[in-house]
Amino acid sequence: MNWILKSTVAVCAVALSVLYSEASEVKPPNILFIFSDDHSQNAISAYGSCINKTPNIDRIANEGAIFLNSFCANSICQPSRASILTGKHSHRNGVTDNGSHWNGRQTVFPRLLKSKAGYQTALIGKWHMEPNPTDEFDFWKVLENAGGQGRYFNPEFATQTGHETLSGYSTDVIADESIQWLEKNWDTNHPFMLMCQFKSPHVPQLPPVRNAKMFNGKTIPEPATLYDDYANRQPYISKNWMGLDVAVLGAIPPFGSSYKPHRSHTRNLDSMTPEQQTNWHEAYDKWSQEYYDFMASTNADDHVQLKAFQYQRVAKNYLRCVAAVDENVGRLLQWLEDQNLENDTIVIYSSDQGYYIGEHGMTDKRWMYEESMRMPLMIRWPGKINPGTAITQFVQNIDYAPTFLEMAGVTIPKAMQGASLLPMLTGNTTNNWRESLYYHYYGHGKHNVPRHEGVRTERYKLIHYYTDGNWELFDLQKDPNELVSVYENPQYQEIVKMMKKELKRLRKQYEVPPNEYGKKIFKKAKL
Ligand code: CA
Questions:
Q1: Within a 10 A sphere around the Cβ of 295, how many other Cβ atoms?
Q2: Mapping DSSP to helix (H, G, I), strand (E, B) and coil, where does residue 414 land?
Q3: What is the distance between the alpha carbons of residues 396 and 86, in angstroms, rounded to a whole number?
Q4: 496 C-alpha to center of ligand 1: Å?
Q5: C-alpha of residue 84 to centroid of ligand 1, in Å
Q6: pLDDT tens, position by position, 84-131
Q7: Which of 277, 336, 348, 433 is the most exposed place for a label (fewest CB within 10 A)?
């Protein structure tokens, strides 16, 4: 942006409700949306992590705004992505679960940015939905294979003209490709909107070799609920298949050993070049051998010792992957700085949903419980958002599309169910902002988690396991770790009534169709 343009911005202080395209010289801001997969707030130092540091991601919060009460609407990969693109809850955009059909003809914010405000748009990295994009973006290059997750080493991509396998580590490759698109494809006469979407730290959580020894010799603090006995709640959480035994995934059999490799090990080792395999074995065989030694010892028979051991492995591999995400966020921020674009570019960091890093003895997501319902969100926009802004209002992934549209001066379609976060980012009042959140998980039986929906207010959370009519209520002020459901407690019966009323109101507001009950679904869940 030249000095005339800069002064135009400063002097005009163009109201964002005015279309940028109508303001002769002012180009809308670039939008760089950096997105990861399964990155918990609890593994981001800006959110107070006690287990790691994320200095580059933190920069976005420190130099802009952090949303302290940021949530998803349905804690699973594809539905979160669909909600972000459409500004709608799952039942309205059709992507209720992984495996749902993506209707690419529906209204999505990138297409509006292009048609209404002249943006050049791109998505690079994990798309995950089916089918692949068509004209949702001007340019796309999306991970394929491994269930649409792509592999951690030498990932394969579907492109607009075919297929491509790129050498390197997934997170590095996606950042490289993003920078390359900006350098080679971006037409600087247009603002860009780039969605750079990492696969990491999703399972199987294979870190880059350079981070292999990170946290070695250190003990990662255990979460307070690691040894949760699942008492005082409905039985579902005690029966889920989201245990810490994924620790095995960090234990690719050492070179020359006779251990039988897990299917995911074979898949990931096979995608490495012989040189990468050698480097992997040099860096990881000791760590892997420790796993097999422990599992062969009597210590593995002790429930507590086993869980403690598994937790360290899960957390360390997860955090080594997160470190690579953070490093690449740093590279993207540095690129903007080097190109003198940081003042003209809005940078967002988020992840499709949260994740259990051992909390409640679990990994994975899905539940309406806090660790998976929360998603990180921070936004930097120099000159518009004051550095160090902390926002406490309830926000949800359905708000992203309206926010990006308003930032670009584009009218928000009425059919979008979210609301723009721009007023709270720029210090304006947000009267009548929502005081409760609607949540709905549809993947009945997957990982043995039942369908459920619910409502969260500042203090309470009501969850309805509607396939068989069970409920949980948590008093988050007294019980922030959600260890005791007070649904049956006589002292909470007025609260139960109030929360049920609120759930009903939200269902009406968002036009949620009647829930599906039925034996077929119930049986499938094996609960
Ligand atoms: Ca995910």
A1: 16
A2: coil
A3: 13
A4: 31
A5: 13
A6: 999 999 999 999 999 999 999 999 999 999 999 999 999 999 999 999
A7: 433
On whether the CB atoms of residues 199 and 124 are closer than 8 A, the answer is no
Asked if the 2-205+324-427 domain carries CATH number 3.40.720.10, the reply is yes
Distance 126 CA to ligand 1 centre (A): 10
CATH 3.30.1120.10 maps onto the chain at: 438-522
Among 110, 195, 87, 75, residue whose Cα is nearest residue 419: 87
**Amino acid letter at 305?**
Q
Structure tokens, 349: 């960091």
Sheet holding 65-67, edge to edge: 163-165, 156-159, 139-144, 120-125, 192-197, 30-36, 345-351, 377-380, 65-67, 389-391
In the reported structure, the alpha carbon of residue 202 is separated from the centroid of ligand 1 by a whole-number distance in angstroms of: 7
pLDDT digits (tens, 9 = 90+) for 344-379: 999 999 999 999 999 999 999 999 999 999 999 999
Tokens 């997170």 belong to 171
**What backbone torsions phi and psi does residue 409 show, to the nearest 5 degrees?**
80, 20
- Residue 465 three-state SS: strand
**3-class DSSP state of 102:** coil
* CATH 3.40.720.10-classified regions of the chain: 2-205+324-427
Distance 353 CA to ligand 1 centre (A): 6
Spatial separation of the C-alpha atoms in residues 272 and 268, rounded to whole Å: 7
Number of C-beta neighbours around residue 159 at 10 A: 13
Cβ–Cβ contacts within 10 Å for residue 41, how many? Answer: 22
At the topology level, CATH places domain 438-522 in Arylsulfatase, C-terminal domain (3.30.1120)
> 76 CA to middle of ligand 1, Å?
5
d(CA 303, CA 443): 29
With beta carbons less than 8 A apart as the criterion, state whether 47 and 350 touch: no
Q: Indicate the residue type of 248.
A: V
How does DSSP classify residue 130? B
pTM value is 0.94
In this structure, are residues 354 and 365 in contact, taking their beta carbons and an 8 Å threshold?
Answer: yes
